[in-house]
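Please, why this fold?
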Amino acid sequence: MRSSYERLRWAHKQIGYELGYTKKLEQLEHAVLINAKITEAIAKLGRNDYREPLRGSYLSSGDTYGDVGRVGESLKHFVRDWSEEGKQERTTIFDPILDLLKEVDAELRPTKRVLVPGSGLGRLAWEISQLGVDRLFNNSE
């Protein structure tokens, strides 16, 4: 973002400055750093839970921001899957599935397997596991 702004002509930069665009860029850069700390903490929790080391680096040499689209997608999944703000969407999507699984006798649930494709950050798979059903989940990649 900053590099795009820096490539503008002086007159356009001046307009951006007068509109407070540079201040916005500073706020965005600060937010990116905070998001990086949060996502690193989430990754660390995952590595600890699964006792797995981080495999390789997700940033290429010289990259500072990686794939912004993927980061945005991950943050949206995080909000949908694990925050209070995502509860309504989860209820709409997950409840019909969970209600159907609750109809299975509790003693038979461990013998059933459920594939959860495109599982985002795993909330639906986790909810299914709380019912005692064996689950296999994967993301699209």
Q: What stands out?
A: The first helix runs from residue 2 to 6. The chain is about 60% helix and 5% strand.
